[in-house]
Amino acid sequence: MRVVLAGYNVDSAVLDELKKNSPPREDVTPETLSASYARISRDPRPVDELRAAARAEVDRTRRSNQSIIFKMGHHSVAEHAVFNFDIIGVSRLAIEEIERFRLLSFTEKSQRYITLGEDFVVPEEVRRAGREDLFVGTVKAQNALYHKLYARLRPFVFEKYAAAAAEPKNHAVLDGWAKEDARYVVSLATEGQLGLTANARNLELLIRRFAAKGLEEVRTLNARLYELAKGVAPSIILFTEPSPFDAETYPDLAAAAAGWTIPARRGRRRGGAPKAVGLAGFPADGDSRVIAALLHAVTRLSYEECLERAAKAGPAARKDIVRRAFKRMEFYDFPLREFEHADLVYDLVVSASCFAQLKRHRMATLTWQRYDPGLGVTVPPSVREVGAEKEFLAAIDRTNETHAVLEKDIGPAADYVLTNAHRRRALLKVNVRELYHISRLREDATAQWEIRRVVAEMSRLARRIMPLSCLLLGGKDAFPDVYARVFDGGPKMAPPKIFK
Predict the structure, then answer these.
(1) What is the pTM of this model?
(2) Residues labelled catalytic
């Protein structure tokens, strides 16, 4: 056996310094990796020799990539080329578009840990419509209230959690709680930044999809990403124009839906509370599906036979086999993959602040609508407790008035002015295993309060219909107690506590 480290990501500044001190060379490109790995299936030479050949003949390597990807349709070879991008000064609304992509990796500036300044994007759509003064005035008023709220919320949080505040190591967390509640009033135009990592295949998908987007900011970002990637690896990002499927499908669906006359029931009261979590779809007997999958993994029976046995087994036997699947778990473990064979669909109404965290669960299936001022807003309880709700809702009223004016002129780009408190509808499909991941992270005591409430309700509804499969749902902090209720005694390890 030989294992060779074929390459790894290096900061581009380091590459530039190295190139300055060496003769000119063309092989500083990830294309050589894609081409050499593509040849593995048909060339008997060791792969390190294939890489050496690819580096020696870069022009031929590029022609090979284009032939393999374009003519032969083997797009997977492009996955061996990886790019890292610093994306700076982009709006929160545009970041939501970037983070639609399941197989990209990104780390984003947090509004929870960083005090926001006055930086925000003024969309070109707003400038062209002659509405810059209206837009900027509204956003500046939102930002002024953010700083005012933070100044009031910080001492409130430290006083409310005085025992924790006595330990200086907890101050950053408590300060973050004040910031995350104050941020509900800032706009989706607020500038953020993120680090983005993508292989060439998924980068090409992003570029093609972004080319069909309506927001000019997204299209501008798209052009820059393509320009930078093409400069380094021109042979592996080939399909960059939006296809009719990318550009026309959703508008066509919207046109068809507009002709349907069935009235929709919607909550329209400002600050109202439409149902945040509804269980819209689930299997008739999800526990049986999970049990059947467990049986299938350890027997030679067909799934149909396993499902029949799971359905006919007595309550004690059914509970016993699920308990055996859970018994050796620690707080950092997730259920066996067999728990992925039962799905739940949730109909959610969440704020932009909550959605920003929900969208990070990329292995789930998440689709969503535009933000809708008619769904009201989410007011943090702490804002009410410090007596600032009236000011908060006054800012929301001004925002909604501005949004109504802008939408007549610029359509969906009006959403830049909406706040983190504004709500949207989302449809979330998860299997039971993924629900455990979400529950462990988002029901933990350190999680943001709104998503903690949403996920707690998701778990409650799941337990009601699949009580066996959902026996150990709960946040990391609660895992020892949850485990102890199911088994005699607790698990071997307890999760670290942020406040002791």
Answers:
(1) 0.89
(2) 209
